[in-house]
Design brief:
- It holds the Pfam family LysR_substrate.
- InterPro entries: LysR_subst-bd.
- This is LysR substrate binding domain-containing protein.
- The protein is of the alpha/beta class.
- It has one domain: Periplasmic binding protein-like II (D-Maltodextrin-Binding Protein, domain 2, 3-Layer(aba) Sandwich).
- The chain is about 25% helix and about 30% strand.
- The strands form two sheets. Strands 1, 2, 5, 6 and 7 form a five-stranded mixed beta sheet that branches. A two-stranded parallel sheet has the order 3-4.
- The two termini are about 15 Å apart.
């Protein structure tokens, strides 16, 4: 299989508005959200998704990199439920950056980029069998994806 990475979508930490750890966040100029070290949340309650869901798998990898076992108070199958409960102060959760656009401004929450040392992202990629026939339409679609997301080398 040939695989080409197109884009990395960062995971954000979701908390209630003005969480008491907000004072440790650092706002980079030009950055949409401040950055915070996940290790600060070691003693905070977490709301995670069901095991087997991709968001949970990435969340577990992030927590593994942060080297702590979270205090999980709730497991849900809905990222939106986790996000809403976090906005109400019941715990903190993770959400991919692109998912924030789903139900925007429905409620108030704070979002934080997580320090890169925890590898807090998932990667969108295209896979194709290496020597399999690919139609013109398929090749064009992959090239368009590469253009849209700024990936170089897709179907060149």
């Amino acid at each position: 299989m040939a695989k080409s990475a197109i884009w990395e979508d960062p995971f954000l930490l979701v908390t209630q508005k003005d969480h008491f750890l907000k004072k440790y966040a650092q706002q980079d100029s030009g950055s949409e959200y401040p950055k915070i070290d996940l290790a600060l949340f070691k003693k905070e309650p977490f709301i995670l998704l069901n095991e087997g869901q991709k968001i949970r798998q990435i969340s577990d990898l992030i927590l593994q990199e942060a080297a702590f076992e979270p205090n999980v108070i709730l497991i849900t199958k809905s990222f939106e439920t986790a996000r809403r409960l976090s906005s109400k102060g019941l715990g903190v959760s993770f959400i991919p950056r692109q998912y924030i656009g789903i139900f925007p401004n429905a409620y108030e929450a704070d979002y934080y980029y997580i320090d890169q040392k925890y590898m807090p992202y998932w990667t969108l990629c295209v896979k194709a069998q290496q020597h399999a026939y690919m139609s013109k339409a398929e090749r064009l679609f992959i090239r368009m994806l590469g253009s849209q997301f700024g990936a170089k080398g897709l179907m060149d």
